[in-house]
Amino acid sequence: MSVRARQSIIELAAYQPGKSAPIKLASNENPHPPLPSVIEAIAEAAQGINRYPDTGVTELRAVLAEKVGVAAEQVAFGCGSVTLLEQIMHAFCDPADEVVVGWRSFEAYPLVAQVVGARLVPVPLREETHDLDAMLAAIGERTRVVIVCNPNNPTGTAVRRDELVRFIDAVPADVLIVLDEAYGEYITDDDVPDGVELMRGRQNVCVLRTFSKAYGLAGLRVGYLISEDPTVAAVVRKTMMPFAVSSIAQIAALASLAAADELKVRVDEASRERERVGSALRTAGYAVPHSHANFVWISARERTEQIADQLMAAGIMGRPFAGEGIRITIGTPAENDALLAALGAEG
Ligand SMILES: *Cc1c(COP(=O)(O)O)cnc(C)c1O
């Protein structure tokens, strides 16, 4: 006899770290280093790391709740929003219960579902965008959770307020709707809704957000959930492993919220640059759907590998999905210039 892991885990493909390159546009990170005020707060917090963190994330939860206009009971923090997704599935899915998602979307969805033992039901995108009617039709007896990634990773597309409201109101009341807004801060189109506003008065809706992208704290791992029904946030808090959100992450998130105006300048730059890069690529003949996030998607299909190679030759790493397309993060203006030059799309 020997030890044996669950078969579904043995079959999991191990995470493949990206290749390295001088210009890294592969992971949708904020290209700027943390603000000096945030680094200072981290350095000060380092003095106290012999102590366990506040496992209730009390202060950060109160400040965040006040900022978005909800009660602290409606908020749960986690070690990145990926971990919150895992907590949601643990809290809501028995084995073989279903999670409906649009596909292609965030790579963590199938991974988390498989680790938890939930069954993922991927619904193909239509014209690179969530097909909400098809997703509605895919919801069945065993569906416990449906995820709408808005804007969608990796295509950058977003669903509009009217269609999302229609969808939410048609989803059965016992199915939890998760609006993954990891890139919500980059939205500039008024027709793309703010999930927290949509959530109000709709008991089965929650929103996932993160400090990893717009706030530039990807390395610290801190994200949060906001739910209309406080019992949703409460069960998600219950599934958190004790002390998962480190004291340094909590302090850095607080310092980042205090510096929101300074950070907004960077987010605005990324949104402007996204428009510039997207339109230059389209002018040069690439198929690039309009993005609402901090990345663009080239729908390159069978040319994906060739474009990825072309970028690597220029020292630029994007995120190719063989046969589908390549996602390229918006970097600094100079990095974006290098990207456009590498693809023959300057000007
Ligand atoms: C990057 C990303 C996240 C954020 O993950 P963290 O664990 O908070 O770093 C969540 N959802 C999507 C769709 C993402 O692309």
CATH H-level homologous superfamily name of the largest domain: Type I PLP-dependent aspartate aminotransferase-like (Major domain)
User: What strand line-up does the widest sheet have?
Assistant: 2-8-7-6-5-3-4
Strand coverage percent: 15-25%
CATH class of the largest domain: Alpha Beta
Query: What is the mean pLDDT?
Result: 96
Distance between the termini: 66 Å
Give the tally of structural domains.
2
Bound molecules: pyridoxal-5'-phosphate
The helix fraction, in percent, is: 25-40%
**Which runs of at least 5 residues are low in confidence (pLDDT < 50)?**
none
**Radius of gyration, whole Å:** 20 Å
Q: Main β-sheet: number of strands, strand sense, barrel status?
A: 7 strands, mixed
Order of helices and strands: HEHHEHEHEHEHEHEEHHHEHEEEH
Count every beta strand, where a strand is a DSSP E run of 2 or more residues: 12
What does this structure look like?
With 347 residues, this protein is α/β, with parallel strands linked by helices. It has two domains: 7-30 and 260-342, Aspartate Aminotransferase, domain 1 (Alpha-Beta Complex); 36-257, Aspartate Aminotransferase, domain 2 (3-Layer(aba) Sandwich). It has 13 helices and twelve strands. A seven-stranded mixed β-sheet has the order 2-8-7-6-5-3-4, with helices on both faces. Helix 4 crosses helix 9 (230-238) and helix 11 runs parallel beside helix 13 (333-342). The radius of gyration is 20 Å and the shape is globular. The model has no long low-confidence stretch (mean pLDDT 96). Pyridoxal-5'-phosphate binds at residues 28, 80-82, 106, 149, 153, 180, 182, 210, 212-213, 218, 223.
